[in-house]
Description:
Elements: H1 7-11, H2 17-22, H3 25-39, H4 54-63, E1 68-71, H5 78-84, E2 93-96, H6 111-120, E3 126-129, E4 135-139, H7 146-149, E5 151-153, H8 155-161, E6 171-173, H9 175-178, E7 182-187, H10 194-205, E8 208-211, E9 214-217, E10 222-228, H11 232-235, H12 241-245, E11 249-252, H13 259-269, E12 278-279, H14 283-298, H15 311-330, E13 335-336, H16 340-345, H17 348-351, H18 358-363, H19 365-385, H20 391-398, E14 403-404, H21 411-418, H22 439-455, E15 459-461, E16 466-469
Parallel strand pairs: 1-10, 1-11, 4-7, 7-10, 12-13
Antiparallel strand pairs: 2-3, 5-6, 8-9, 14-16, 15-16
Helix pairs in contact: 13-14, 13-15, 14-15, 14-19, 19-22, 21-22
Amino acid sequence: MNLPRTLGELRKSTFSEQRLRVRKVKDELRDNLIAKLRTGETIFPGIIGYDDTVVPQLVNAVLSRHNFILLGLRGQAKSRILRALTALLDPEMPCVSGCEIHDNPYDSICRRCRTLISEQGDNTPIAYLTPNDRYVEKLATPDVTIADLIGDIDPIKAARGGHDLSSELTVHYGLLPRANRGIFAINELPDLAGKIQVGLFNIMQEGDVQIKGYPLRLPLDVALVFSANPEDYTARGKIVTPLKDRIGSEIRTHYPGTVEEGISITEQEAWTRRDGLDLHIPKYVTEVIERVAFLAREDKKIDKRSGVSQRLPISVLENVISNAERRALRNSEKTIVPRIGDIYAALPSITGKLELEYEGEMRGADTVARELIRSAVAKAYDAYFKDQNMQQIVQWFELGGEIKLADTAGSHEVLEGLGNIQGLTEKLAPLGVKQKEKPEVLVSAAEFVLEGLHAHRRIGRTEERVFVAEKQPKRPERPYERGEDEPPPLRNRRPYN
């Protein structure tokens, strides 16, 4: 499709003057959303777990033409949702070529563009913006100034153009004017200084601002969206009341509601494609990884106000695959199959994402993470083997059997030792593993069974990953056994003076 390249050609094209003059960006978002709703098209691709909660509220906010804010703990896809709004923008948007604020050629607000159109008329050059060009994002920090967001006087422009400093032509526009006719997103809004927030809502409501004491009228056409962590309201800052009052909708996000939703998000976001070797990720491994995050969000030793980001299982899965990849390369194996031991090897991707309470600090991040993995293994094990009789395997260890399953050991080497455990390979059917599977798959499944028994304290495991019989608690030692002469009870003795 050949797009018009001059104002004259634009006026004769499908980009009608009336449509561009009247329809604002919020109307554009609304119109395109309505079209998606009518066709049943997915509104926010890649956003999982919000279909019945967050997405309906987002739809209502866009249909209401609201500026809105997303409130939620870290790792709840707030930034991803804001960026997904570009899918509701038109594929192309004409603007005056070279304009810093993407001026509307039919309704110009920029002094430079008005002068250009008056001089060149129908020959005024036209450029086009993609949806990504119309999305501007800023992370709020305490050092952000009004010049960053709104603009400042540029003395170099004044000197080169021979303009007076009070002229509009000397303004260097900030991020907000540069988002004109688009979406302007601010992440972590409470971190923005109060006086900057005041300048923000003033231009939202009134369309005017003062730069270096000079009044400037900027009737911008912008959809403003924000994100914030509820904890930041008291920890680092707050949203000033006049600005909060002008935000039409406050939408709260949340973590995945089910393990299955969490697994879908993790598989979507994690980098799992490795070159050179085949990769097979058992389902029980992904379940254990996801349950670590779910258990961490409920653990009293972990700060619930900070939250446990969905980035935790994503990072853990990537680290688990890397550890399995390292083992496969060292042992010349052709298939990468993660094991439960690889999750313990991925502790660095867990401990850095946990904000611990006092009790957790006393126990240590590594200890807390290991306890979470063990509990996650126990829950995942119950989903497959809760009604299975594992006494034969346990008895093998009680009779003195032991086996070492180092996370660096090759599958063929480990499989020989696992073959000595009576009944182990026959118990793998609930995992969908047959006895003729690849050694890497058999070893991973067998280790999961042993880790599950260890998690339920039916067998033991040393720090060197040697599985042994569970030690029975010792009876308290007594100096006298039944049948022997015992001294009289203390109550019958006379106290010493």
